[in-house]
Write a structure and sequence with these properties.
With 376 residues, the chain is mostly beta strands. It folds into two domains: 186 residues, Beta-galactosidase, Chain A, domain 5; 149 residues, Beta-galactosidase, Chain A, domain 5 (Distorted Sandwich). Helices cover 4% and strands 39% of the residues. The protein is built from three helices and 30 strands. The strands form nine sheets. A nine-stranded antiparallel sheet has the order 14-15-16-17-30-26-25-20-23, with no helix packed on it. A five-stranded antiparallel sheet has the order 22-21-24-27-28, with no helix packed on it. A hairpin with a 4-residue loop joins strand 25 and strand 26. The longest helix is centred in the first third of the chain and has 6 residues. It starts with a helix and ends with a strand.
C-alpha cells in the first residue's frame, strides 16, 4: 500500500456524548495536517484493526487520537490532541502525543560532562533542560519510511550539536498495532558518545474525549521505589522507598486518593501533585514487564503499559489550566489527563548511581513499550 493511499483525505470519528441517545460526528481532515515545515511535508496516518484505531502525524511523531472500546463496546478517544498542525504549534503545552528526544525529562541546569567535555543545553523549564529542548524531537518533521494499516516506521537524523547534544544521532521509531495493543519500538545509533532517552508523551483520559477529572481513575505502578526530587523536579540522587508514602501505587488506588497530602508531603508539594519517576520492579535489566495499569471504572476501560525501560514518569496533569482546546472543543483542564512516560531516569548524565543513558558509537539503542487496552 502506497503512502498516498495511507494519507487520509477525510477521517470520520464517531463520538458518543454524555447522553447515549445523542450522537455527534467530528471530522479530522488530513488537509489540516498537510503542510510544509522547513521544506518537509507533514501528513496524517491511520493504523486500524477491529479493536483499536490510532491516528498519527509525522510532525513530532505524534499520536493524534487513539480509539478503543469501553465496556459496552462504544469506541472513544483516550488520547488528548488537536485537529490541525497549526493547533499543535500554538498549544501552550507543546508535548501532546509526541516523540521525545534527544533526552526525555529533565537535565539539571542543562549541563552534563562527557569524556572530559562540558556540554550546555538550552534551558526551557525554569533553570533546567526539558524533553530535548525547545526544538527537540517534538518539533521536528519525521520521515515516513513505510506505512500500512498495521504499522508506520519513521526516522529522524538529529545532527551533531543540535540542541547542544554531541554526535549525529540516527533514530528510527515504529508504531504498530496488534489485536488490542499499540507498541512503540525505538532504535538509535550515533557517531559520537551522547545521552539518549526516548519516550512518547501521550496524555490520556480513559473516559474518552478528555471528559472530566482523571483523579477517579485507578492506578497501579509496579514500583517499590521512586526518585525523589528537589523544588525544580531534579532528582536528589537517591532511590527512595514508596512504603508509607503517597507514592505507593503497588496496589491500585485512585489517582486522587492522597493528593490532599500536598501540604504535608514535600515530594507532592514539589510536583504540585504527581510528576515523578518510578523505579520499576524488574526481574532483569531490559526485560519486558508490566509497568503500570490504569482503569476508568465508569467507562470500564483498562490500559496496561509494559516496557523494557527501567522507569516510568507519572504526571497527573497538574499544570494544565484550560488554555489549550482540543479536537473535540474540550478545554484541557487541571488534572483532566495523565501521562505515563516509559524512560530512563531524569538527569541520569549527572547522577552516577542511575542506569547510564550514554550511547556510544558502534552500539545500538533499542527499546520497546506496549500499551494494551481491555475491558475492566
Amino acid at each position: 500500500m502506497t503512502l498516498n493511499k495511507i494519507a487520509l483525505t477525510l477521517i470520520w470519528l464517531s463520538i458518543v456524548s454524555c447522553e447515549p441517545a445523542k450522537k455527534k460526528e467530528f471530522v479530522l481532515k488530513a488537509s489540516d495536517f498537510q503542510i510544509e515545515i522547513k521544506g518537509k511535508k507533514t501528513d496524517l496516518y491511520l493504523l486500524k484493526n477491529d479493536k483499536i484505531q490510532v491516528y498519527i502525524t509525522n510532525y513530532g511523531g505524534r499520536i493524534v487520537s487513539l480509539l478503543t472500546p469501553d465496556s459496552k463496546g462504544v469506541m472513544g478517544d483516550v488520547v488528548l490532541g488537536f485537529k490541525s498542525i497549526a493547533d499543535y504549534q500554538r498549544a501552550k503545552t507543546p508535548y501532546h502525543g509526541c516523540l521525545i528526544g534527544r533526552y526525555g525529562n529533565r537535565i539539571a541546569k542543562g549541563k552534563f560532562e562527557l569524556d572530559g567535555t562540558t556540554y550546555q543545553l538550552p534551558i526551557n523549564n525554569n533553570e533546567n533542560h526539558l524533553h530535548g529542548g525547545p526544538e527537540g524531537f517534538h518539533n521536528q518533521v519525521w520521515e515516513v519510511v513505510s506505512a500500512n494499516e498495521n504499522s508506520i516506521v519513521m526516522t529522524y537524523l538529529s545532527k551533531d550539536e543540535e540542541m547542544g547534544y554531541p554526535g549525529n544521532l540516527t533514530v528510527e521509531v515504529t508504531y504498530a498495532i496488534n489485536d488490542n495493543e499499540l507498541s512503540i519500538s525505538y532504535k538509535a545509533s550515533t557517531d559520537k558518545a551522547t545521552p539518549v532517552n526516548l519516550t512518547n508523551h501521550a496524555f490520556f483520559n480513559l473516559a474518552g474525549q478528555a471528559k472530566g477529572s482523571i483523579n477517579d481513575h485507578l492506578l497501579m505502578i509496579n514500583a517499590d521505589h521512586f526518585t525523589s526530587v528537589d523544588e525544580s523536579l531534579i532528582p536528589l540522587g537517591e532511590i527512595r522507598s514508596v512504603e508509607g508514602s503517597p507514592f505507593d501505587f503497588r496496589r491500585a488506588k485512585t489517582i486522587g486518593q492522597d493528593l490532599n497530602q500536598q501540604g504535608s508531603d514535600t515530594q507532592l508539594s514539589h510536583g504540585g501533585g504527581y510528576d515523578h519517576n518510578f523505579v520499576l520492579n524488574k526481574v532483569s535489566p531490559g526485560s519486558m514487564s508490566l509497568a503500570a495499569r490504569v482503569v476508568d471504572p465508569k467507562s470500564g476501560r483498562q490500559m496496561d503499559i509494559l516496557t523494557e525501560e527501567p522507569g516510568i514518569q507519572f504526571y497527573g496533569g497538574n499544570f494544565m489550566d484550560g488554555s489549550d482546546v482540543g479536537k473535540y472543543g474540550t478545554k484541557f483542564e487541571y488534572q483532566a489527563s495523565f501521562a505515563l512516560e516509559t524512560q530512563h531516569f531524569p538527569d541520569s548524565p549527572n547522577q552516577p548511581i542511575f542506569p547510564s543513558t550514554i550511547l556510544n558509537p558502534g552500539k545500538t539503542y533499542q527499546t520497546k513499550s506496549i500499551y494494551r487496552f481491555s475491558k475492566y
